[in-house]
Amino acid sequence: MIPGCTFSRTRQLGLILLMGALLLLSCLAAIMVGSSHLTINLVLKALIGWDAGPTANTIIWKIRIPRVILAATAGASLSLGGVVFQAILRNPLAEPYILGISGGAATGAIAGMLIGLSLFPGVSSSALAGSLFTLLLAFMVSTKTSDRRDSLLLGGVMINSFCGALIMFLISMSGDSEVHRILFWLMGDLGLAEPGRLYLLLGTIPCFLVIYLMARPLNMMLLGRENAALLGIDVKKTSAILLISASVMVSITVCLSGLIGFVGLVVPHIFRTMVGPDHRLLVPACLLGGGAYLVSCDLASRVLPPNGELPVGVVTAMIGAPLFIVLMWKAKR
Length: 333
Fold this sequence. Notes:
The chain is an all-alpha fold. The chain contains 14 helices and no strands. The relative contact order is 0.17.
């Protein structure tokens, strides 16, 4: 039993329905609102297959729906990545961006782009290799110290900084025509979502299922590695499966959306406050709520600027960075 949370199947089902409705509403708003505003009647006609007109059909099916799908999947992946890292490390500041997993994936992806690899399997494979390498390097650094959890977080921050420097080096070696595209992508760009690329997101579904099915072992990990082992959990195997699953889904989304920071920090803390620490509730809440959060941030990035749009990573950083400072201040106290 995890203190502070009362679990029941009815509560879990109600939470899933509520978060699903929130995700659906945010997606509907993101499809309707933009540089060309669409009425809800036009959107519903297009969604159910009726003729909404060639212009509306093009905007809905070729521009906005692919972007919404990418935003929802990226939000879910980054949120669940934060849940996994925070549970395994028992550190509220852990998330893929801060630990360098996203930075490693971005480094691998940019290297694949610059040498002319195809999106799949080339760029996606190099992104996965980069994320797994940074994760392994962070763990190697942390095993040399007594306080593994804090050293892993600090090691991840340093690796992330090194990845940032390496990315700038790769950009300086690229042609002028590629610099603007890569820089915009690095800030988190969902505007490049294309229907022909979204098939890569299917690779996140097994990762979602693995993390959801391992919610009970995640609960045991909150009690500490020794106590989890006494309760019958194979700590090393469980940690490896969860960390690899989180790295795979983060790498896939980074390939398509670029670097989007602080989602894995903000969303788990919001829902942990609302539903408690039980991962049987927290995982589905972050899966659906994280998707709704990033879809809403992307909508804000398109609506707030008077001209053009902001990279969605700018919006998530404006929200997440102050929260990160508050969490560090509380942790120090």
